[in-house]
Specification:
Chain B: Pfam families: Asp_protease_2. The complex is a heterodimer. By secondary structure, chain A is an alpha+beta fold. Chain A is built from two helices and four strands; from the N terminus they run αββαββ. Chain A has one domain (3-70). Classes of the chains: A alpha+beta, B mainly beta.
């Protein structure tokens, strides 16, 4: 599904989606096609979906015309385990 | 401000205030190798309203174990030692159990911090606010 279709169906809210097609360019991730997992109705559901977000699944707000994300390195702690 | 060595890394505490709630986070790692300050969602979600809102940025984090998603929010206030920052941008996401977050170079530089490893203290060269 195109992001524009998701925006039409669920305007001005967060949705939980899966990245089907994306590319990284200039340090940013551009998602071109998504599969809808579920619309998120309130802030509690949105927070739950954020915690479920992993690999290709993510939350995004449909007020955004395009899906563009900054790419960062996952924080890693290299402590000595006691 | 005193810092501690725990498990061979630098630990301190930091306080965040957001939407009228204040929470002090212990077990914050001082990490000059991290560009952004990052807070473990598990450490704050029960006390502070960090639910995603329109206007928050979603960021992708790549690394060992695959891809993660974090939310980049402007927090009303961050108090760190003598430094206070308003509307400070923090990433909220997944992190190892038992660690509240990482104090990144963004916060350390905004406060002009000096890290004294001989005395295990952290102080500002001059009082600044952002």
């Amino acid at each position: 599904m195109q992001w524009s279709e998701v925006r039409k169906l669920f305007p001005d809210q967060y949705v939980f989606v899966e990245d089907l097609k994306s590319k990284i360019e200039g340090g940013k991730l551009y998602v071109e096609e998504v599969a809808l997992i579920r619309p998120l109705l309130d802030s509690r559901e949105t927070l739950e979906a954020l915690k479920e977000s992993k690999d290709n699944r993510f939350i995004y707000h449909t007020s955004n015309e395009k899906v563009v994300m900054d790419v960062v390195m996952k924080p890693m702690v290299r402590a000595v385990r006691s | 401000m005193k810092i501690e060595i725990v498990g061979g890394i630098l630990m301190t505490s930091m306080t965040i205030t957001h939407k009228g709630t204040t929470k002090t986070l212990d077990n914050m790692i001082i990490d000059t190798g991290s560009a952004h300050t990052w807070i473990n969602l598990d450490a704050v979600e029960d006390d502070v309203d960090v639910a995603p809102e329109d206007g928050d940025q979603i960021v992708t984090a790549f690394g060992i174990g695959g891809r993660d998603i974090a939310i980049r929010k402007r927090i009303d206030r961050v108090d760190f030692g003598t430094f206070r920052a308003s509307d400070f941008q923090v990433d909220f996401g997944r992190l190892d159990y038992g660690i509240s977050g990482l104090i990144g170079l963004d916060l350390l530089m905004a406060g002009n911090f000096v890290l004294d490893l001989a005395r295990l203290t952290l102080y500002q060269t001059e009082a600044t606010t952002e």
